[in-house]
Amino acid sequence: MIVLLLRRVAQGVVIVWLVATLTFLLLHAAPGDPVSATLTDPLTPPAVREYWVHRLGLDLPLHQQYVHYLASVAGGGFGFSFPHHQPVSAVLAEALPNTLLLMGVAIAVAFSAGIVIGVVQARRKGKPVDWGLSVGSLFFYSMPDFWLALMMLLVFAYWLRLFPASGMFDPVMYGSMGPWARAGDRLWHLVLPAATLALLVTAAVARFQRSALLEVARADFTRTARAKGLDERSVVWRHSLRNALLPVITLLGLALPALLGGSVFVESVFSWPGMGTLTVNAISTRDYPLLTAVVIVTSVLVVLGNLIADFLYAWADPRVRLE
Amino acid sequence: MRVSAPLILTLVAAVATACRKDAPSARGTADGGTLIISSGSDATILFPPLTINVTSAQVEAQIFEHLADPGPELNMIGDAGWEGRLARSWSWSPDSLSIAFRIDSMARWQDGPPVRAADVAFTYDVYTDSAVGSPVAPLLEEIDSVTVRDSLTAVFWFSRRSPEQFATAAFQMRILPEHLLSSVDRKGLASSGFARDPVGSGPFRFVRWVPRQVIELEANTKYHLGRPHLDRVIWSIAPDYNAAFMRLLSGDADILEYMRPGDFEPLTKHPELKAVRYPSLIYGFLLFNERDPKNPKLPHPIFGDRNVRRALTMAIDRVQLVRSVYDTLAVPAVGPFTEALSTYDSTIRQIPYDPDSAAALLDAAGWRDANGDGWREKGGQQLRFTIIVPSSSTPRTRAAVIMQEMFRKVGVRAEIEQLDPPTHGSRQESKRFDASMNAMSSDGVPSTIRQLWSRAAVKEGSNYGSYESARFDALVDSAASQMDPDGAAAYYRQAYQLLADDAPAIWLFEPLSYAAMQQRIHPSGMQANGWWLNLRDWYIPREERIARDRVGLSRELAADE
User: Fold this and answer.
1) How far is CA A17 from the centre of its chain?
2) Which fold has domain A97-322?
């Protein structure tokens, strides 16, 4: 078990290093640099630009910049973000928890709801409920994330005024709230962005779950469970579902990068101050250190997600051995 | 979408009042209220010497002060029309080589100590310290030194007389507290705690900054020029424009600082909202590169010829173009300036729209359609060039498409290349372009035109089109050395006329800036160099206040009141 874990961690480190190196090279191949993309005012004197280019080491040969960058990453610092005037680690520390909160809630909601919907559909195969849920899940599955986010904003924040349009908390009243009211306010602000992300994933989970359950329903062990006289609820929830979870677990590993990608739009529309909006800004300001750090963190999350999926696989299916 | 004049007139309820200072006391209102600004970007730093971002500038303008501010006329020559801020008064030496600023003895830092002349000298030292790397430092070069005559008098010494020396001393630096910053390492100032939790002497004090979410300020009840009317000002960050607009429509925000042409229609359905016009220093133009992008030592094969540039300008119907892109929300530009600039001159003679004369000029320059394919050629080379456009700008993209068609009508083939903004900027800086759709915001100082169009700025500035004219340089030098505003204006007029005649660019549009805001917000003193500069005079009448206006000051400040 430990050997497997170490092997996977080593693989992860190599993947992250490759991704970081590729990102570093591609970014430096693109026109512009953090200084010229940030000091956009043509009235900025060239001497000031040159000063910052030198201070940030952007005038060094590329291989030296790369070595400096690797040293910085190895030290856990990720370098200095010129557009933010802060160490990259500090910028990430502000944004990462917000994205993890949003993604965590979205994943929890999406997989819980998706599994339940999939089970309901499988049990009511061919009936109006199955048909209705299929149409509904296909509708959300095929919807572009930015469009769904805008529609959620329009319907629930503007027309119905049930939820706030954006942000993580009430900008005026939050300071004067008690701890419970603050938690409630945060939850209230979390609903729309988390629901948007969750809707996009729920549809996929439900469709996978339905197919897997229908497949398992024809398996020998399901027939045996029924032959033993177990009630249908026990057959589905205790015998069929655990076996039918495998494709959904695979989906969990794949959902992380998809959600991170989707969060770029969703965070932007709902002004959620996470990694998504940070990435967009970093691209437009050619913030090399920050962008590379974002890619590293993202790839670490994806590697972790897949690792977790592997362990869950082993839990769900005793035939799979972690060796 | 068409934006009709009556619609604009209906919506723009407060145009007249926005730019003048309207005393709330005359309306029987008391202090109070919350203003939520829906901002498209977060601040990057709250430390004036290193500020390069508009949200940072907006926030800092409330926390820190200049010694004096120009009035709405934005006069940068001499000190006429200037209003004291931290400085209660000033006096010139007989030879005009020094100006002594007398600090208001009532001015206090928001943490208690009085503001002293030593703070002014310290501020100059920080701005010009190479370890700080301030973009403002080169603009302070004409200041020799700043000395302290007594605790309340700071003296600026200049190497030479210049008409803009007062503006340089009074307006380029926001005064910093020495007692809080003197012990901080200069190289580390950018990432110091102060840069994210600042203390100034201005009308509002810093409360909190939650990155990419909220920046909150509260009224400084001990402000030496009188407490601001609003209790608090909050910048609520919404990077997506649609979300920001929605936030305004749903009442979650009070003001959105700019509006797109298509947003006037939805505003009509919201009687609680209004559009407020304010003066602007932004103008748009098509810049020609006069040097060959492949070999800058050679003139550009097309734009190196003044007559060809003039012909291309004649081919563009700017009135029609502005109408098509902005409808009534912009006017044709007449030069590298807007109506708000103190040296603006509407009488500059323009190259007229005249496609026939354009064709004749191109014929005379040797560009003829010899093979009858509809495009002009010369020496086997087609009259063809590429216009680079930043993909982020819808108006500039539309303008480029319309110009492409207008050029086609005179046999000129223009192609459009959309680039992301950093790439567009990089291509301009490295002069790897034929023509570029550009927009510029003037800083209100007439002489900065040198940084954009002088020969010196080809190598050491932002003269990306490499326009070179010894006469233009001489005219601007003469203008910039005139101590008399009228004399300076006369020279600037000649310089502007020369630019119009030489056509290093086609001056296209001057967008009219509109902010959308809630009716209960009563703006005041919205200036071209910053609509936010007089937020301390904005107010919300008591009878129009809503729940968030009644939150009041924090306990500590309320006790002080």
Assistant:
1) 20
2) MetI-like fold (1.10.3720)
Contacts of B436 (CB under 8 A, 6+ apart): B286, B287, B289, B387, B388, B389, B424, B427, B428, B464, B465
Structure confidence by residue, pLDDT tens digits, B419-469? 988 889 889 989 999 999 999 888 888 888 988 999 999 987 889 999 999
* Among candidate residues B369, B357, B351, B473, the one with its CA nearest the CA of residue B411: B369
Distance from CA of A40 to the nearest CA of B (A): 7
In this prediction, residue B29 has a pLDDT band, given cuts at 50, 70 and 90, of low
Q: Which residue has the higher pLDDT, B24 or B176?
A: B176
Q: Quick one: tokens of B285?
A: 């133009």
Domain boundaries, chain A: 97-322
The larger pLDDT score, comparing residue B133 to residue B208, is at B208
Touching check for A167 and chain B: CB below 8 Å?
yes
Minimum-distance CB partner of A157 among B208, B240, B250: B250
Domains of chain B by residue range = 5-63+202-279+513-558, 68-181, 282-511
Q: Which residue of B has its CA nearest to A266?
A: B240
Percent of chain B at pLDDT > 90 equals 69
- The model's pLDDT over A201-249, given as tens digits with 9 standing for 90+, comes to 898 899 888 988 888 888 888 888 888 888 888 888 888 887 888 888 8
pLDDT at A322: 54
* Residue of chain A nearest B138, judged by CA positions: A45
Q: Amino acid identity, residue B47?
A: F
Closest residue, chain A, to B432 (C-alpha): A31
Tell me which residue has tokens 């291309």.
Answer: B312
Q: Which two tokens stand for residue B242?
A: 């649609």
- The tens digit of pLDDT for each residue in B83-114 reads 999 999 999 999 989 999 999 999 999 999 99
CB proximity B452 to A under 8 Å? yes
Q: How far apart are CA B383 and CA B414, in angstroms?
A: 8
Distance, CA of A278 to CA of B239 (rounded, Å) = 10
CATH class of the B68-181 domain in this structure:
alpha beta
Report pLDDT for A13: 86
CATH of span B5-63+202-279+513-558: 3.40.190.10
The CA–CA distances, whole Å, from B342 to B17, B281, B444 equal: 21, 11, 8
Flag if A165 and B246 touch (Cβ within 8 Å).
Answer: yes
Q: How far is A44 from chain B (nearest CA, A)?
A: 6
Q: Which of B311, B503, B301 is nearest to B412 (CA)?
A: B311
Q: B15 pLDDT band (50/70/90 cuts)?
A: very low
How far apart are the CA of A280 and the nearest CA of chain B, in angstroms?
Answer: 10
pLDDT at site B441? 86
Distance from the B551 Cα atom to the nearest Cα atom in chain A, whole angstroms: 8
CATH topology of domain B282-511: Dipeptide-binding Protein; domain 3 (3.10.105)
Kindly identify which residue of chain B lies nearest to residue A177, measuring between CA atoms.
B551
The pLDDT, as a whole number, for residue A323 is 52
- Comparing CB atoms, the residue among B135, B243, B440 nearest residue A165 is B243
Q: Which of A87, A153, A285 sits opposite B191 (nearest CB)?
A: A87
Mutation pick from B164, B240, B246, B555 vs chain A, by most beta carbons of A within 10 Å, is B240
Cβ partners under 8 Å of residue A58, min gap 6: A33, A34, A35, A65
| Closest CA–CA distance from residue B362 to any residue of chain A (Å) | 32
From the list B435, B437, B429, the residue with the least C-alpha distance to B391 is B437
Least confident among B11-20, B216-225, B260-269: B11-20
Q: Do B237 and A45 touch (CB under 8 A)?
A: no
Torsion-angle region of B366 (φ positive above 0: left; ψ -120 to 50: alpha; else: beta): left
Q: Which residue of A has its CA nearest to B215?
A: A171
**What pTM does this model have?**
0.86
